[in-house]
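Sample pair:
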Amino acid sequence: MRFVSLSLAAAASALVPGIATAQSRPDQQAFFGLYKELVETNTTLSVGSCTKAAEQIGARLKAAGYADGDITLFSVPDHAREGGIVAVLAGSDKKARPMLLLGHLDVVEAKREDWVRDPFTLIEENGYYYARGTVDDKAQAAIWADAMVRFKKEGYRPKRTIKLALTCGEETTFAFNGAQWLAANRKDLIDAEFALNEGGGGRYSAQGKRQILAVQVGEKASQNYTFTATNPGGHSSQPVPVNAIYQLADALKAVQGYEFPVKFTDTTRAFFTMTAAASGGDVGAAITRLLADPNDAEADKIVSRDKAMHSTLRTTCVATLLNGGHAENALPQRATANVNCRIFPGESVEDTRAKLQELAGPAVTVTANAPIRPTAIPPALDPKITGPMKAVAARHFPGIPLLPLMSTGATDGIFLEAIGIPVYGAPGTFIDIDGNGTHGLNERIRVESLYAGRDYLFDLVKAYAG
């Protein structure tokens, strides 16, 4: 998952042209080698290997001077290709709690026949790098790994210990998830005061100018549910009113027609307050009314015309898969559907299931599908975190506003937050308004964005580490 594009053109009145960068510095050239190797290492679940990618990162860290005891390569026997790596740069102040740099090595599947270019060959064209993972999440994973290499080579000794965790399994529901495994089995390796992760970033305008920076502070929990209707069935020449497909359809229509209540976290309240001030007009006024009264249905209707804002306001559930019947000439004995919910922070999987069951009625059974994700816990909108982000951004991206947002998607951060590590999606890497093909065809990132984001994040980590 990467930074989610929001319809917020009005929220950023100051548009500053991007500053062109290139592989002109020796450190940039070294970074490009790491980035290229990582991108061209296939880490899809079907045929790839996160373990190989982790070992390549480990070799670069050792070449930079890290000892064997500073690096942990991990996997489990039944998922040998889905391993990851944790590395540690010890700080000088034992009282200062560590910080964690989190990223994922796995990527979404990519079929060569569908792409214009080979998805696992890094190609530079028209100011972009093209390949699967150029954005999600190998840009940030490479930046984090490169920063650890540079720190060691420069002899940098932080006050705060810096940890790096690059894991597998973020992109696929039933894959072995390295972040979840570390949280459950090796919390000592990743324990930190806070973590920086994907989910934030920045956005270019349609004209290719830097428009906004965003820090992700909290996310929804993604959870799938199965709706099941059963019936004795019979011959299709003698239909009866009670039909499993019709029962399922009625249940799904009930879900379609239901709006979960509007809620706010500290982050979304700050986000909507800034958006109201920048938007003005009917939308700005409606947001202001909704902030004052979340039960204002008319204000909700106006704000929710924007699908991103609609999802930011509440839990959402939508039917995504459907299956029913067993023969063309028979009444259906069974019909099922998958309903995917994005659950608002603080709301539980079970409470959401109970509401869906209420909507579906007694003729349809609603069950939560494994794996069941933890309840989303929103981290604090902490000035100790956002302050350095703003200060460093003022040097690297002057005039660009920084907005806090709650992701309507899901990241591995939810597993760390469940064990008490607040996770923030770091700003810095800008993407285009169309999302740069993330999870889709011809994924790409602006060359300028990658190198400018790398410089920003390197300085940001130093600002936290001391």
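The two ends are 29 Å apart (CA to CA).
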